[in-house]
Amino acid sequence: MPQNPQDNLDAMLVVVTSLPNAETAKGLARALVEKNLAACVQLTEGIQSIYRWEGKICEEQEVLLSAKTAGSKWLEISAFIKGAHPYDVPEILAFTPTQYDEQYGKWVQSEVNSKL
Predict the structure, then answer these.
(1) What's the CA gap between 81 and 38, in Å, rounded?
(2) Cβ(37)–Cβ(45) under 8 Å?
(3) pLDDT in tens, 69-78
(4) pTM
(5) Phi, psi for 27 (deg, rounded to 5)
(6) Rounded Cα–Cα distance for residues 65 and 57 (Å)
(7) pLDDT tens for residues 22-61?
(8) Cβ atoms 93, 18 nearer than 8 A
(9) Half-sphere exposure of 55 toward its Cβ, with a 13 Å CA cutoff?
């Protein structure tokens, strides 16, 4: 059974989505950081996605966006990505790392909870 990342509000989350090009991905990444929804966002260009959409097999070059945030931001960050995303049904996945550097985790929490 899927676990809601918000169940552990202090957990670090890595939220992943894919976008059609670098310009769109960079705009979304910048907005996530500016709105304190993510402490850091990494973009990986050149991924190839193969999927079925409306009965047709599709192949696309995409950019993978990976945002580091806190469990307390799950509902807000997923809603923001969904609203800003150009796809009808965007991939929005969240992973909770079981281990990470404590200092890095504290930095992520402080950034996403900052009032700046």
Answers:
(1) 11
(2) no
(3) 999 999 999 9
(4) 0.90
(5) -60, -45
(6) 23
(7) 999 999 999 999 999 999 999 999 999 999 999 999 999 9
(8) no
(9) 0
